[in-house]
Amino acid sequence: MRFSVVGVKGGVGKSTLSVALAKLFARSGRRVLLVDRDLIGWSSHLLGLHGGSLIGAAAGREEPFHLTVEEGKGSVTVVRVNPDPPEFGRYFSRASEGRVEELYVGLLRGSEVQVVDNPSNVFFDDPLVRVELRAYLSALPGDRWYRVYVSDPSERGVEATLKYAEALEASAPGERRGPSW
Prior knowledge:
This is CobQ/CobB/MinD/ParA nucleotide binding domain-containing protein. The chain is of the alpha/beta class. Helices cover 43% and strands 20% of the residues. It has seven helices and six strands, in the order E-H-E-H-H-E-E-H-H-E-H-E-H. Helix 5 (97-109) crosses helix 6. It is globular, with a radius of gyration of 16 Å. 36% of the residues are buried.
């Protein structure tokens, strides 16, 4: 089961909600993979992972890009996908998509629940999203998938989030589309 936490702007609680969901499922005895796709890497930081990234590892950097912490009856493994923003372009261009998928698929298969903390305003045509999503779909075909939309409480924020949800759901791959709005 996968929960992808998305929103139109930063600072609305996507990372906090992602960590809370991951810990909640782990406390009930699940093995949870928290996928930190946000460029800031706040979910990773909250769980104690600093420095390494999946993209960096795929490009040859030898820093840990995931960390497992026990939580209640289960565990949360956090994987930081992106290196720090100044390094992203350099490492992403050197990392082969096949190597990213190879490193990531093992983590996916070892989990029962995946929570994905996304950057603001992300769409399915983003190159990194395509790579991560292809690995997820190949490792866990038929897995249930949900998107959780987060907004600030303002009327403008809610309206922007609803428009974003409509656009994102319309661009979702085939059977992964959510309800029509």
